[in-house]
Amino acid sequence: MATINDNYLKLPGSYLFAEIGRRVAAYKEAHPEADVIRLGIGDVTQPLPAVCIEAMHQAVDEMAHKETFRGYGPEQGYSFLTEAILKNNYASKGIHFGTDEIFVSDGSKSDTGNIQEIFGSADKIAITDPVYPVYLDTNVMAGRTGTLQKDGHFAGVTYLPCTAENNFAPELPAERVDMLYLCCPNNPTGTTLSREELTKWVNWAKANDTVILFDAAYAAYITEPDVPTTIYEIPGAKDVAIEFRSFSKTAGFTGTRCGYTIIPKGVTGRAADGSRVPYNQLWNRRHTTKFNGTAYIVQRGAAAIYTEEGQKQVKELVGYYLENARIIREGLTAAGLEVYGGINAPYIWLKTPHDMPSWDFFDKLLTELNIVGTPGAGFGPCGEGYFRLTSFGDREDTKRAVARFQKLKF
Ligand code: MLT
Questions:
Q1: CA distance from start to end of the chain
Q2: Which of 59, 318, 361, 384 could form a disulfide with 300 if both were Cys (CB 3.0 to 4.6 A apart)?
Q3: Per residue in 35-60, pLDDT tens?
């Protein structure tokens, strides 16, 4: 008889955003007339930059002719894209990687979820709390944790609380771990780690032989100079950090799908025979075995953001969402709410009034104001009493939602 991967049974029934989708759909069915504004899942609403559309149209035309048609491409990404990324996002800051240290993919959700496969199954993980659920759920699926405890934590995981009390900057773990997930700018809190804080983490990782899995999907939203846009700005990070980046939030590719992961060859792990093996080698093996490359048309669209005009258009797009973030942040503050994030990130993290449980607050907003957000508890026990709003909505919807908040009553 075939058996199942029992680790899946340790997980709560549904993925956070699937559960929110289910609740909103049920509400809409019962109240078809309700004008629901969705500021829940971090999905973009504005069209792709014109340069991307143009480049993709051209790529489609190439596909229509035998001479320019493309079948399978390099699994790691076409050089026109990898070279443009390395030049614009790294070499421009004096950080140099070989084209065999970057892997283009269908997005950071897949990469941050799949990366754990190249680590030992008994490796110990540390995650912040609250956290983007993909990091934890995929490690649960892989059997790297125990079961879910009454306090909402999985046994065998080192949790690093991030709350208003520590300014959402996690303390160094009390014990050593093998893999450590950091997300900056942070999803869900919208807060960041300064250069000094990140340096502390890189030094700790070096001293403890820990690999930092650094999710920088929101790097394009950084507005303050003291926040590094890549972990490799920190000396020594090339020996301990793997970085994930995405076109989803930078250029509106949530539905188009394109991201990339940097795995420097200096990041190594210990094999059973005691030798050190670069994770780059393992990921290359995995990527070429399980992935056939991101679509050529999509990679052409992604590469277009690195032209002069592309950079201008992407800046405008990010600026649009950052302006929404400002509108939400200031509007909610004026409504008397305690608000964090939204300066270097498209997420606003607010304290629920009167310490209301975050799922209750979700229901209250949905039913009384017809606004969808994300309950903080969905990101971990330390997210209880908090709530996340995204600035990825349409401007008018964002303004209307903020206006509705002024009517919030308890
Ligand atoms: C979120 O809402 O947290 C994001 O949409 C997550 C993602 O990009 O997968």
A1: 55
A2: 59
A3: 999 999 999 999 999 999 999 999 99
What is the chain's alpha carbon radius of gyration, rounded to the nearest angstrom? 21
Condensed to tens digits (0 to 9), the pLDDT of residues 75-90 reads: 999 999 999 999 999 9
pLDDT tens digits for range 227-281: 999 999 999 999 999 999 999 999 999 999 999 999 999 999 999 999 999 999 9
CA distances from 79 to 83, 268, 303 (A): 6, 25, 10
Q: Which two structure tokens, joined as six digits, stand for 288?
A: 């070429």
| Residues whose CB falls within 8 Å of the CB of residue 358, separated by 6 or more in sequence, listed in order | 352, 375, 376, 377, 378, 383, 384, 385, 386, 387
* Residue that is written with structure tokens 């900056």 in the block: 184
Q: How far is the CA of 313 from the centre of ligand 1 (A)?
A: 22
8 Å CB contact between 263 and 233? no
Kindly report the pTM of this predicted structure: 0.97
Lowest mean pLDDT among 14-18, 109-113, 177-181: 14-18
Q: Which residue has the tokens 């201008």?
A: 312
Residues with CB under 6 A from ligand 1: 41-43, 109, 132, 187, 248
- Please, which pLDDT band fits residue 388 given cuts at 50, 70 and 90? very high
Helix extents (H) in 228-295:
248-251, 279-290
Indicate which atom in ligand 1 lies nearest the CA of residue 246: 8
Ligand 1 centroid to Cα of residue 386, in Å, is 17
Task: For residue 116, give the amino acid letter.
Answer: Q
CA distance linking residue 105 with residue 287, whole number of Å: 9
- Residue 220 CA to residue 337 CA, distance in Å, equals 27
Instruction: Give the integer Cα–Cα distance in Å for 257 and 238.
Output: 26
Tell me which DSSP letter residue 49 carries.
P
DSSP, residue by residue, 55-108: HHHHHHHHHTSTTT---S--TT--HHHHHHHIIIIIGGGT----GGGEEEES-H
The ligand 1 atom at the shortest distance from the C-alpha of residue 374 is 2
Residue minimizing CA distance to atom 9 of ligand 1: 109
Q: What distance in angstroms lies between residue 226's CA and the mean position of ligand 1's atoms?
A: 25
Query: If you measure from the C-alpha of residue 43 to the centroid of ligand 1, how many angstroms do you get, rounded to a whole number?
Result: 7
Give 198-212 pLDDT, tens digit per residue: 999 999 999 999 999
What is d(CA 375, CA 371) in angstroms, rounded to the nearest whole number?
12
Residue with the smallest CA separation from ligand 1 atom 6 is 42
